[in-house]
Design goal:
heterodimer; A: mainly beta; six-stranded mixed β-sheet; five-stranded antiparallel β-sheet; B: seven-stranded mixed β-sheet; four-stranded antiparallel β-sheet
């Protein structure tokens, strides 16, 4: 059974703070790692697809890194804003997606 | 370009009844996925279509669930008969490539009473 873990489970930061969280996944049979941003009552929104060890992706204030050998990915948010408040999901893809439980981020104004 | 759409947005049914959920993927996307999120738990994979063929249905919980994608366009997921534990949010997603970005629909919130 494939297990994808995310930490922390939840996080509260002040507006302007930078933050990061972790996605851990099995290091064998790796195909891709996806990050999604999920706001309550909406559908998950794709942020990044990462396929190569050492990959770094950036989208505005959000960036992600990937280490497939040790089985982890970090998501960073620089200068958090209240609109960044959401649950951040990672999904590991050996074949089909295995989602982690998410990190719930709250950015306080 | 229209995104993934799902219908209905909400459904409340009684145990033993039948419900059919529909997903319209992004036009041209051959890959269509169904997922389910039971309250408080992770999003779980149900099955994957490539065009009209079932590529992987290993996540389907039991034979009360039937998914179809006739013609390789929209897909339906039928639950018959529904049980209490089937309550949750059913998401559909589509992608152009098997390992590419999956675009999610808004989900159907199913409540079985």
């Amino acid at each position: 059974i494939l297990n994808v873990e995310q930490s922390p489970q939840s996080l509260h930061v002040q507006e302007g703070d930078s933050t990061n969280f972790t996605c851990s996944f099995p290091s064998s049979n790796f195909y891709a790692l996806h990050w999604y941003r999920w706001e309550t009552a909406k559908s998950p929104e794709a942020l990044f697809v990462m396929t190569l060890n050492g990959d770094e992706k950036k989208k505005g204030r959000i960036s992600a890194t990937l280490n497939t050998k040790e089985g982890y990915s970090y998501l960073y948010i620089k200068g958090s804003q209240p609109e960044d408040s959401a649950t951040y999901l990672c999904a590991f893809s050996p074949q089909n997606f295995v989602f982690g439980p998410g990190t719930r981020l709250s950015v306080l104004p | 370009e229209a995104g993934v759409t799902q219908f209905p947005s909400h459904s409340v049914i009684e145990k033993g009844q039948t419900v059919t959920l529909r997903c319209d993927p992004i036009s041209g996307h051959d890959n269509l996925y169904w997922y389910r999120r039971v309250m408080g738990k992770e999003i779980k994979f149900l099955l994957h279509f490539v065009k009209e063929s079932k590529q992987d249905e290993s996540g389907m919980p039991n034979n009360r669930f039937l998914a179809e994608r006739t013609g390789g366009t929209y897909s339906t997921l039928k639950v018959q008969p529904a049980e209490l534990e089937d309550s949750g949010v059913y998401f559909c997603a589509s992608s152009s490539d098997i390992l590419g970005t999956q675009y999610f629909g808004p989900g159907t919130r199913l409540l079985v009473l």
